Amino acid sequence: MVDKWSTRRKGDYELRLTRTVNTPGRYSVELYLFIPPETTLSARTLSEQQFFFGSVDHSFGLMGLQGGDRAVKNDESFALLSPYFEIANSSWLLRYKASMGRLRGQLNNTDTPGETIARALRLSQAFAQRMRETQPSRDRQKRYLRQMDIYFSWFAEQFFLECMTRDSFSELDEALRQSITDFLQQERTHRKEQDYLRDFQGTPTALWNRMSLYDRLLEYPISLRPKVAELGSGTRKLVKAATTMFIMSILTYMLFNVRNASETLSITLLLVIALMYGVRDMVREDMINVITRRLRRGKPRWRIRLRMPYTRQQVARQLVWVDYRNLSDLPQVVASAIGRSANNDDAQVICYRSLLKPDKDTLEHDEIRERITLDFEALCEMIKVSRDRLYVCEEDEESGFSVQVHPIERQQDFHLLLVSEQPGQDQSSAQLWRLRLGNSGIVQSKSKEPNWPSPEEQMKRSWWDRITAVLKKN
Questions:
Q1: How is the beta sheet containing 14-21 ordered, strand by strand?
Q2: Residue 259 contacts by C-beta under 8 Å, 6 or more apart in sequence?
Q3: How far apart are CA 194 and CA 192, in angstroms?
Q4: Which UniProt keywords apply (predicted)?
């Protein structure tokens, strides 16, 4: 089974990658963002720590087990155990959204979307019927179910309205188009009957922000809470102590030699002593950073413990690596995966690696949705605003001659390579996207076929090649 991630644009700057974790074991994810040479990226303009905390959001949520939500909802005893009611329904909603997300990805990759849209319609109708059959008794649960009903009605409507804007929608079967229209009309009638209309009022921005708030509230019961711990603080303290001892030993030795050479205290001697201490302060911090980085090269930067929001029970552990590398420092199979697009050995590559180990007991009751959201706003700000203009001569029958001025937006092509491994599989799979970024955000996101060895080719590699690849990766 090939481990595939689904992608979706979110806003102007964000790209969201999603997959489902359902088997005990270790899950490895490696992201390689190839930076074009004209982008001035360095550890000073965007440090590795800033990239981890500001440009990457690696989140996890419990989705329940497929087919298990029906048995839970038939057992009325779970309604007495709030927040178990919220956890069960949030997992159910998250599974529905994940299914609709996969169907949206299929729509983008097919010229005959009829069957995909029909499946989405059947899924939405079944979800609406089962959700609205639930009759909780507690006020808190009623408020929660009301928010869930409102959000679902809006989410489903947005999906099918997006389908109606496609060029291929007019070619669908007449009965299917009528079924979609009837479903949308039923949702509008349901909103009026349940007094939901005021939640759908306001400007498009206000409505979008309101539904985004509902989405966060509904996902809260099943969103795993990360507890981040930065690794390497002990190593840095030892390096700091060792470098301080080394530098102070040299300075003390030099001061004693100067004292033996000249027993009088002069201004020159004072300046020499001050210069020594100035050089010490200037060199020591850089020396500590360089030595610490070399000692911790290939080791994880952060350890994350993922816990449930209410019980604080640990359900998974995660290790994260983030570093900047040159193209020549990457394994050959990774460097050649994007083809001829990156032929500069000095090109910068942002490497993000995650190793997830979910607890076995957790996956017996739930599947985990893993989602990586990449925010490219910091990189887009590095793209300089263009002041160039393109002048086009146009001839008109009335005016005879006119000149049109077109402003030019500077854009750059980035390549995003995702390499993932699943438990029980010795072979890795890869996905590649070409991202065209401008100063105002993501202009285009296009999936490409990576130059990645097949499972058979990976099995044929010699043991020496495998060891070399692992050592170079670390």
A1: 6-10, 14-21, 367-375, 56-64
A2: none
A3: 6
A4: Membrane, Transmembrane, Transmembrane helix
- CA 114, CA 158: separation in Å to the nearest integer? 17
ω into residue 300 within 30 of 0, thus cis? no
- Reduce the DSSP state of residue 243 to 3 states and report it: helix
User: pTM for the full model?
Assistant: 0.81
Of 247, 272, 275, the C-alpha closest to 258 is 272
Residue 146: which residues within 8 A CB-CB, separation 6 or more?
Answer: 194
Type of residue found at 294: R
- What is 394-450 written as a DSSP string? E--TTTS-EEEEEE---EEEEEEEEEEE-TT-SS-EEEEEEEEEETTEEEEEEEE--
Dihedral sign for Cα atoms in the order 440, 441, 447, 449? positive
What is the average pLDDT across 446-452?
A: 89
Q: Tell me how far apart the alpha carbons of residues 241 and 231 are, in angstroms, rounded to a whole number.
A: 18
Which structure tokens are listed for 244?
């301080």
214: left (phi over 0), alpha (psi -120 to 50) or beta: alpha
Cα torsion 329, 333, 337, 342: sign = positive
| C-alpha distances out from residue 258 to 245, 264, 270, 273, 275, Å | 20, 10, 11, 10, 14
Could you read off the pLDDT of 68-92 as tens digits, one per residue? 454 445 455 444 455 788 888 888 8
Which of helix, strand or coil describes residue 303? strand
Q: Which residues contact 159 (CB under 8 A, 6 or more apart)?
A: 100, 104, 120, 124
Q: Would you tell me the crossing angle of helices 204-219 and 139-164 to the nearest 10 degrees?
A: 130
**Domain residue limits, the chain:** 6-226+299-399+402-473, 232-295
- pLDDT tens across 273-318, in order? 788 778 777 877 888 888 888 888 888 999 999 998 888 889 899 9
